[in-house]
Structures are given as structure tokens and as C-alpha cells.
Amino acid sequence: MNIMLLFHIIVTAVGGYMAAAGMKMKKTGEISPLLLAEEELKKCKNKKNFISFIYWKEVVLGVVMSVVGLLGLVNELVMELGKLKYVELLVFLAVFFWFWRELGAARDKYLSKF
Q1: Is the pLDDT of residue 82 over 90?
Q2: Across the chain, which distance is largest between two alpha carbons, in Å?
Q3: What is the pTM for the complete model shown?
């Protein structure tokens, strides 16, 4: 079995799940367990503002992951994407590190230290 094919399927699925979890978080007003551990959830000072700050960023990361996964599947199954695969990797890494930084900022701002 082609391991990269399986990897791209997983990246696509996880991206879709993250985008859906971000939208669900906005709709239900409950913080996604993908973002915070159970003990961190208890430290959240203002769930509504935390969700407003981070939900759309989680959706963006999820969509980018799904697109990268789908492009990887196209590269594996349909046609060689050439240098585009390096561009997609750079875009994914940029969005991932941006989200990581924003999640850290949200933790600092909305989670109590004690």
C-alpha cells in the first residue's frame, strides 16, 4: 500500500473534522476538545470570547489541511503537480504556525494562570 496515499487521506479527513469542529464550536458555544485539554477548559475565564477569537482560525486551518490533502491525493492518483507540491507545503506550514501562535495567544488571554 502506498503510505503517502493513506497520509493524504488522513490529512484531508482531519482537516474536514477541524473545520467542522470550529463551526460547531461557534454554533454550540462549547470549546472544542481539539483545542484545549479538560483541565484547561476549567481555567477558561470567558468561553464566549475565546470561541470568537479562535473558531474561525480553526476553520481556516481545517480548510487549508483539507485542500493540501486533496492536492496530495491528486498528486498521487491523477497527475504530478511538480513544484506546486512545495508551494502547498509552504502554505500549510505557514498556516499551521500562524494557528499555533494564535492558539497560544488565546490561551494566554483567556485562561487563568491559577
Answers
A1: no
A2: 53
A3: 0.87
